[in-house]
Amino acid sequence: MQRQVIQIDEQLCTGCALCIPGCPEGALQVKEGKARLVSDLFCDGLGACVGQCPSGAMRIETREAGPYDERRVLAESIVAKGQTVLAAHLRHLKEHGAVDYLREALAYIEEHGIDNPPYAVAHAGGGHGEGGGCPGSRMMDFGSAGAKAPVSGEAPESALRQWPVQLHLVSPEAPYYRGSDLLLAADCTAFAMGDFHTRHLPGKSLAIACPKLDSGMDVYVQKLIAMIDLGAINTITVLLMEVPCCTGLMGAVQEACSRALRRVPVKKVVVSVQGDVLGEERVG
């Protein structure tokens, strides 16, 4: 089957092993001085290890691979390592919005009579977004109220409220997403629009993605479902470029909305390559 798995560039990999803790499933090991994907079956394709790699050697790719097996991962790799590793695995699934895998894991735990405290630990936080790990994916809340129009000669203010913003790196249940109005922006929009920070971003939480160049669109759908159902976001504004490849982002939002338990209003805003708003419409 075609699915998302991790690809490691051996020329860029330094063998630092910082990616290993980011993969509680046990899909990664350091062999002969390089990180290796030792089993496709244990790679869930969520990309937690990508944000841990300081050399940029890891990325998600779509290729032929055996299906990820959550129950097998638990039985052969996770449970035997104890509650700390089990909690890390559950937290990993929760923070990356892997709702289906998380439900399957909890069902396995209940079926096999495994003590449930690890799930309580997972809900208590302490994941890569709140503590250690790669600084580029560490969760930060700026609490910005919004950007003001610049006075002549001054640089415009940023309306960014949080970090990170790339959809693969964000935690769907981060505090700044809970009950927020989400702006899901195609990568190019902020560069095309001179008023991105003053007109479109103030008061909103942000996630960015490129439906043409990013891999793992099914992971994006899972994260958006988690933002809707677990993060309880209020609304979604999808900011797209007029180019055809941008429509995939709207498709991901529509699929997520159709599969989520909650219903949220969705607005689509289309931007020209010169930064003009060509149209706005409610689509959900």
Automatic annotation (TrEMBL):
Domain 4Fe-4S ferredoxin-type as annotated: residue spans: 4-33, 34-63
PROSITE patterns: 4FE4S_FER_1 (PS00198), 4FE4S_FER_2 (PS51379)
Keyword hit for Membrane: no
Sorted UniProt keywords: Iron, Iron-sulfur, Metal-binding
InterPro entries: 4Fe4S_Fe-S-bd, 4Fe4S_Fe_S_CS, Corrinoid_activation_enz
GO molecular function, one term: metal ion binding
Superkingdom of origin organism: Bacteria
SUPFAM superfamilies per the UniProt record, alphabetical: 4Fe-4S ferredoxins
Gene3D superfamilies xrefs: 3.30.70.20
Keyword Iron-sulfur in annotation: yes
Protein name: 4Fe-4S ferredoxin
